[in-house]
Write a structure and sequence with these properties.
By secondary structure, the chain is α/β, with parallel strands linked by helices. It is 33% helix and 18% strand. It has helices at residues 19-30, 52-62, 77-83, 89-98, 115-118, 132-141, 161-168, 208-215, 222-230, 267-275, 306-322, 340-349, and strands at residues 8-11, 35-38, 43-48, 71-73, 103-108, 123-127, 145-146, 174-177, 188-192, 198-202, 259-261, 280-285, 297-302, 327-330. The strands form 2 sheets. Strands 1-8-2-3-7-4-6-5-9-10 form a 10-stranded mixed beta sheet, sandwiched between helices. Strands 11-14-12-13 form a 4-stranded parallel beta sheet, with helices on both faces. The radius of gyration is 20 Å and the shape is globular. The two termini are 23 Å apart. Magnesium ion (MG) binds next to loops.
């Protein structure tokens, strides 16, 4: 149990944050406190990465298992390189191309990175976020900021400050409210393995195809990482990470209500459920007709574009939770690599409790 604290909510201009407000937030971090802040993907829950005690408080606030490592957010490539023991050409290429942005690189760590950040592993995850508030905060702190998504462990990540407060009010010192995040789902996590292979541990807004276009070499899907995670202790390719993928944690990104992915657009499932008196939330693709649904159904029409769908997904799930639906039905997604990240999040949300 952690003792309740007062959570200070501060509104900031997302494009031009007031330096005085950022300075106050950085002071909280420098005192070892916790500050939630917007990034271009989702809200992060920040603490000084090099302060083991501060980062440990993130795990307490989130109820996060100690074996799940966190991402160190840095201001630039130089700061990233101080945390990593090697910086291969592929890291340089990816950083130059995608930073600042929703790409996290996993590399062997230097001795100064506390175990709590890496969950005791020998690698560290680093990323330069592309959001004026996040960047200003890291600059003002003058050092790396460890930040997982600002939600209780296993829940739906926050894309707005009110989502953060819903589960972390009284558990963090400060929330910087910079409005809605434009990306909507978490960064792509890529492991640059010692065998030279490049593996997507978590799909995200930057697709495998995007990475291959830049690198001109094959990038492996997280199928490999997942089976590696399953074999954790005995993995065959010698990548020394205790928990390479959140796929190890079965249920993730999950709303309170059970979620099912329909075979088709979802109408048949929605109608059958509501006939039995169940209050249903339906994430329906906008190109389908959603008219004529029973009273017990709450419909959220979702865009047919993958990036726009991603931007709205978590807010839609938070809304359906707030409306206390008993079951969420998701219409089948279009095929295609650009949908991989959204599909991944929905599949993890659909794992039964
Ligand atoms: O977009 C994002 O990545 C957001 C924002 C706040 O930056 N952060 C985020 O953090 O999603 P979190 O903790 O919810 O997810 C980090 C993921 C987890 O799946 C974790 O297992 C993985 O990155 N990870 C962190 N360090 C790792 C490491 N050393 N090796 C392998 N995976 C790692
Ligand atoms: Mg998370």
């Amino acid at each position: 149990m952690i003792s309740a604290m007062n959570t200070e909510l501060i509104k900031v201009d997302p494009m031009h944050p007031d330096p005085e407000l950022i300075r106050r937030a950085a002071e909280v971090l420098l005192r070892g406190g916790l500050v939630a802040f917007p990034t271009e993907t989702v809200y992060g829950l920040g603490a000084l990465a090099l302060d083991a005690g501060a980062t440990r408080r993130i795990f307490e606030a989130k109820g996060r298992p100690a074996h799940n490592p966190v991402i160190a957010h840095v201001a630039n490539t130089e700061q990233a390189r101080r945390l990593t023991a090697v910086w291969p050409e592929v890291a340089e290429l990816l950083a130059r191309h995608f930073w600042p942005g929703p790409l996290t690189l996993v590399l062997p760590k230097t001795a100064g990175v506390p175990d709590v950040v890496t969950a005791g592993g020998t690698t560290v995850a680093v990323r330069v976020p592309d959001h004026p508030v996040a960047r200003a905060l890291i600059e003002a702190a003058g050092q790396p900021v460890a930040a997982p998504s600002a939600n209780r462990s296993m829940g739906v990540s926050p894309t707005r400050a009110d989502h953060v407060l819903k589960t972390l009010n009284g558990r963090v010192d400060m929330v910087l409210d910079g409005g809605a995040c434009s990306g909507g789902i978490e960064s792509t996590v890529v492991a640059l393995c010692e065998d030279g292979a490049i593996r997507v541990l978590r799909p995200g807004l930057i697709s495998r195809e995007d990475l291959e276009r830049v690198l001109q070499i094959p990038v492996f899907e997280d199928g490999a990482a997942r089976s590696q995670a399953d074999q954790c202790e005995t993995n065959t390719f010698n990548f020394p990470v205790p928990l390479p993928s959140p796929g190890m944690l079965e249920r993730h990104y999950a709303p309170a209500a059970p979620l099912m992915i329909a075979r088709g657009d979802g109408r048949a499932e929605v109608e059958a459920l509501s006939r039995t008196g169940v209050r249903v939330g339906w994430l329906a693709l906008r190109d389908r007709s959603v008219g004529g649904t029973p009273d017990l159904v709450l419909v959220r029409e979702m865009p047919c574009d993958a990036a726009a769908y991603a931007e709205q997904l978590y807010a839609a799930l938070h809304d359906l939770d707030a409306a206390s639906v008993e079951q969420i039905v998701v219409g089948r997604l279009p095929e295609g690599g650009e949908w991989a990240a959204v599909r991944d999040r929905l599949q993890r949300a659909a794992v039964p409790e």
